[in-house]
Amino acid sequence: MRCGLLGRKLSHSYSPHIHKFLGDYEYALFEKEPEEVESFLRYGNFDAINVTIPYKKTVIPFCNSLSSRAKALGAVNTIVRQRDGSLLGHNTDFYGFEYMLRRSGASVQGKKALILGSGGASVTASAVLQQMGAQVIVISRTGTDNYTNLDRHADASVIVNATPVGMYPNLGQSPVDLTMFPNLACVLDMVYNPARTELLMQAERLNIPNDNGLWMLVAQAKESAEWFTGEKLPDELIPMIHRKLKLQMENIVLIGMPGCGKTTIGRELAKRLDMSYTDTDDEIIKAAGCPIPQIFQERTEAGFRKVETEAIAKVCAGSGMVIATGGGCVTVAENYPHLHQNGQIFWLKRDLSLLPTDGRPLSQAGMLADMYKIREPLYRQFCDHCIDNNGTEDETISAILSVLEGGNAQ
C-alpha cells in the first residue's frame, strides 16, 4: 500500500516516524509546489495520503466526495483512493484535537474558551470545543475580539493557541500574557516544536495545567491509518507512540558542578540512545576562538557568561540531543528557558570531595564549597530530575533511563 504526506515543505515532518508504528505500508513525503498539486492528485502514484498546510483546502475541489466531518470543517487532511479510482476526503484533525483536549482533563462545559488565531486549526478547535459545550471566543488580529481588547475575556478558563507564534525557529515568542487570565484551568498549544513554547513555559511558571500539540499529531495520525487500512487500531497505540516520539524529539540536558561527570555520562548516554552529543563548552570555544581559561582571563566571568548564553541558545534550539552544560550556566536566569524549551533537565549530583579542579578557572580558586552553596539552589530550581552520580557510570545512566521510560529519579 502506497501512502504518504502531501505538503510544500516537509523536511522536518515526523509523520513517517509515527506511521511506521501504525501499519505495514509505505509512507513517503510528497513535496509539491501549488501548481503541481492538481496533477499529483489526478495522476500521483498513491493509495492514501495525509495533507498538511498549505493544501488542506486546496485539495477539496479534486476530491470526488467528502466525509461529513471534512464538509463541516471545510478542510481535508486525509485522502483515500476508492476502488473505482475516485478520491474520498476526510479530516482527522478533529479527532486529534478532541483526544488532546480530553486527555488534558479540562472541564469545558459551560466555560469560556479562547482560541488564538482564526485559521484552519482554529476552526477545528472551535468545532471540538463547541461540541463539548464550551463558550468559544476566537481571537484574531482584527475583528470584534482581538489582541487589543483581551481584557474583556479575563474570565476565560481555557486558552488554545492555534497560531504558529512560538514555533521553531521563532522561539521565545508568545501570543498573549497569561497573567491577564486569573481563572485559567488549562492552556493548550497546537505547536509541538519546541516541546514547550514560551506560552507553555509561562503556564508552567503559573502552575496552570498545559500541553503541546504532539498528542494531537499522534492521535490524528492514528485515525488516518484507520482510514488508510480500513481497520480499527487500539487507542493504546497513541500513548506508546507519543512516548517514543517525545524521547526522539526532546533534548536530554545535563547540569551540575564542574567535574561532576556530565561529559562522561552524556557521551555514553548518547551512544546508548543513538542520539547526537553536544557539549556547550565546545561550542563556546568555537565561538570565542580560544580556550575557556583564556576567555575568563581576557573577558572576565561576565564576558564568558555572555558567550555561554549565546552558545546555549543556539544549541538548545535543536532537538533530539544529549547536551552537557558548563557548571555555572545556572547562574544566568536567561539560560533556563533555552535549556527547558526542548528538553528535560537532569542535575548530576556528586559529592564535592570527588570533583576535580584541573583546568577549571573557578574551581581552582579553592572555594568549591562556597561555589556549591550558591549554585545548589539554582541546580534544584533548573532541574526536572536530580540524579545521584556518586556510584558507577552504569548506575547513573540506568537512573536517567528509568526517568525517561516513566520511572522516578533516584
Description of the molecule:
By secondary structure, the protein is α/β, with parallel strands linked by helices. It has 3 domains: 107 residues, Rossmann fold, CATH 3.40.50.10860; 103 residues, 3-Layer(aba) Sandwich (Rossmann fold), CATH 3.40.50; 155 residues, P-loop containing nucleotide triphosphate hydrolases (Rossmann fold). Helices cover 39% and strands 17% of the residues. It has 14 helices and 16 strands. Helix 4 crosses helix 5, helix 4 crosses helix 7 and helix 7 crosses helix 8.
Detail the topology: elements first, then pairings.
Layout: E1 2-7, H1 15-19, E2 26-31, H2 37-43, E3 48-51, E4 65-66, H3 68-73, E5 78-81, E6 87-90, H4 93-104, E7 112-116, H5 120-131, E8 135-139, E9 158-161, E10 186-189, H6 198-205, E11 210-211, H7 214-229, H8 237-249, E12 251-255, H9 262-273, E13 276-279, H10 280-288, H11 292-316, E14 321-324, H12 335-340, E15 343-349, H13 368-382, E16 385-388, H14 393-404
Parallel strand pairs: 1-2, 1-3, 4-6, 7-8, 7-9, 9-10, 10-11, 12-14, 12-15, 13-14, 15-16
Antiparallel strand pairs: 3-5, 5-6
Helix pairs in contact: 4-5, 4-7, 7-8, 10-11
